[in-house]
Structures are given as structure tokens and as C-alpha cells.
Amino acid sequence: DAGRRARYRCFARQATELGAAAIATAHTADDQAETVLMHLLRGAGTDGLGGIKPVLSIPDSRFQITGSDNPQSAISNLQLIRPLLATSRAAVEAYCAAHGLLFRHDASNADTVYTRSRIRHELLPLLATYNLQIVDALGRTAAVCADDAAFVQQALDRAWPELARQHLGGVTLDGTAWRGLHPSLQRAALRRAYAALGGEDTLSWEQVERARELHGVGKRLPLPGGIGLRVGYGGALTLGLPAAAGPQLLAAAQELRVPDEIELADGWRLHLGLGQPPPTSDRWTIALEAAAIALPMIVRGRRAGDRLRLAGGGSRKVQDVLVDAKIAQPLRARWPIVASADQVVWVAGVRAAAGCLAQPEAPSALWIQIIPAIRNQ
Questions:
Q1: Cys-Cys link to 266, which of 16, 85, 243, 247 (CB 3.0-4.6 A)?
Q2: Are 175 and 165 in contact (CB under 8 A)?
Q3: Which residues contact residue 194 at a Cβ distance below 8 angstroms, ignoring those fewer than 6 apart?
Q4: 190 phi and psi, to 5 degrees?
Q5: Are strands 260-263 and 307-309 parallel, antiparallel or unpaired?
């Protein structure tokens, strides 16, 4: 799965650089049959049994395309298409042979240590002894399940405005509306709310069912990616990240004065001063060389094109800095970035730009301290 995601990230970057509108892959009807069987063996609903989708928009939670949390990214205009999905592998290979087109066989596809390879070389041939048209039959199953899954999503689209409220702390599902949903819609709603927070994994059947069975005010359930689910009054369900996960801006951008104190989300605060820095060396405190900083500074969210200056020359995308620091995807858009004259000075709690830190022995510095919520209690 990691390799698949890496491939699609590579394809998306190349397509964006070329200005392409779509990425086409050569998945065939045989690939579809293998996928349906693999999902069936693992246990799947209609979405999973729908198999490979003929068309997908990128970014898509299945691939976790780097940069996808930036809605202005050119990546968000891409489509992934599979034009050969209804054509057999044998027909594609015959066409290539007839027209002198070269293609490659991935050696790993012959290794039956992998589940998909075992399905291809062992299970599908066995099933063909029961039904010679097994590939076509599984393709029809995928098409029907995909249509049924789309119907559920359309029903959820109609229910969503009354059901869900997205806010800085996450997504809250109204308790009354939630209880009135068919179980299929409850499962789809949980998955949609989780995806809206940028969950980096898909929720398993067991996780979804435990979430559906969660009752009682204050009850909590941890989910992958640091996201949690809690039950509120009236049976409302809120999916979000805990306040301790990191600081989040309340405003898109805010000018910093000297001295200054601003409120962040969930009880976090940012302090700015000039003089002796606070006596702490944790990652939430930074001392800057005042002469190297153009005032006023601002604290804001990440913007397209933001880069952080590195020691020795060069720079790095702020998006990549956040990813490398394992900042959860839902936190990145409102993670505090301190900037001076359009230059990023500090990615809060992560890394400072080269050439702006005060010397340790400096008697006075322009200092910034972010105080986590736990200290404010």
C-alpha cells in the first residue's frame, strides 16, 4: 500500500509539472477481478466490492497525495482514469503484440507470497473451473456494488447539511440526526467525517462498528492518525484531534506587536516580547536576533509557496517541513507560521529559519513563546 501511494504521489507531481489534466493507468478487467476478490477475502462493503474506480479525482484519501491539504493546489484539478478497466489483460497484450508496443512485466506479480499474486495465479484459475466467465462476472459485481455505494453517498449528501457541522475542533454529527440514519448511512457518515479531518488511513470495519456502538456522554474512542471520537450531550459525535495535539490559529493571519499576547484555539496562547527570553529550552520557545527581523511580524497559516531558509543556503517547502515533523494532516492548515516581510521565520515548535536565531549569550532578544493548553489550566 505504501508503494502504491508513493507511485501516485510521483504521478501527481509529474502531471502537475506537465500541466496534464489526468493520469491514465492501464488497469484491466483482470485487475478488477483480482481486486474484488482481495476485498471480499478481507471483508468489505459495497464500496470495497466496487473495486477499482474508473475515474477518481485527485487528491483522494486512498492515495494521500502530498500537498492535497492545500485547496489551491493544482493537484486538486487532476483526475485519475482507467480507460482499459473493461478490457481483459489478454486483449491488451494481444493489441500490444499486434502493434509492436513494448510493455513490462513486474517480476513481483509472479511471486505468490503476495496475496494479489496468489489470487491471480491460484484462486482465479480455480474459480474459472466453475465459471469460465469469472472475470466478467466479478466485473459486473463491481459495477453493481459501485452503483449501490454511489447511491449511499448521494443519500448522505442530502442528509449531511442537517447532520454534520465542521469546525476548528473537528466534525460534529448531530445526535438526533445520527440516530435517525440507516446503519449504512451511519457507516458512510463516520468515514466521511474521518476523511474530512485528513485521516491518513481508512477506517476498518471493527473501528466503524465500535464507533457506532459508542454511547454515553464523555465516552471516547481513539482512531488512526491521532484522531479521536467522543460522545457529547444529546448523543452528538465529535471527531477531532485533542487540544494537546498542537497549536491551531483562530484567525487566518494576525499582526504581532512587541510585546503581545494572542489567543490560539483550545486554550493555547502565543506570547511575544523583547528582552531576556523565558527560562525554558523547550520547542515552543524561540529567541530571535532582533536586528535580523523586520517588524511587524505576523502569525498565520501556511500559504502556497512558503519555504523555510536552511543553513548553508537553500530552502525547504514548509509543507514538507510539517510532514517530516509528523504534524498530523488535519493540523497543518492552521499550524502557526511566524513570518517577517513575507519570509518564514519560524514553523512553531518545529524549526526556525537559518540566520535569525539570537546567540545564546545575547542579553536581549526578540522572543516568542507558545504556551500549550495544559499550562493554562
A1: 243
A2: no
A3: 203, 223, 227, 239
A4: -60, -45
A5: unpaired
60 grid coordinates: 483522494
The CATH class that applies to domain 168-241 reads alpha beta
* Reported confidence tier of residue 328, pLDDT bands at 50, 70, 90: confident
The answer to whether the CB of 224 falls within 8 A of the CB of 199 is yes
Q: How open is the CA angle 250-251-257, to the nearest 5 degrees?
A: 105
Nearest Cα to 28, choosing from 110, 89, 94, 119? 89
**CB half-sphere exposure, 241, CA atoms < 13 A:** 22
C-alpha cell at 154: 448521494
Q: Reply yes or no on whether the pLDDT at 73 is more than 80.
A: no
Write out the H or E segment, with its range, that includes residue 90: helix 89-98
DSSP 357: B
pTM of the model: 0.70
CATH code matching the domain that covers 1-157, chosen among 3.30.200.20, 3.30.390.50, 3.40.50.920, 3.40.50.620: 3.40.50.620
Phi, psi torsion values for 297, nearest 5 degrees = -90, 160
Structural contact between residues 26 and 105, judged by C-beta atoms closer than 8 angstroms: no
Give the residue from 296, 299, 227, 238 showing the smallest Cα distance to 263: 299
pLDDT digits (tens, 9 = 90+) for 191-249: 999 988 877 668 999 999 999 999 999 999 999 888 899 999 999 999 987 766 789 99
Q: Which residue ranges make up each domain of the chain?
A: 1-157, 168-241, 253-376
Distance of alpha carbon 353 from alpha carbon 280, whole angstroms: 20
| Within this chain, domains 1-157 and 168-241 share the same CATH topology | no
- CB-count burial class (<10 Å; 0-12, 13-18, 19+) for 85: buried
> Is residue 16 scored above 90 in pLDDT?
no
Spatial distance between the Cα atoms of 303 and 305, rounded to a whole number of angstroms: 6
Burial 115-143 (b: 16+ CB within 10 A, else e): ebbebbeebbeebeeeeeebbeebbebbb
Contact, 55 vs 20, CB < 8 A?
A: no
Residue type at position 13: R
Whole-number pLDDT of residue 72: 36
Cα separation of 337 and 278, whole Å?
20
Per residue in 238-262, pLDDT (tens digit) is 998 776 678 999 988 999 989 999 9
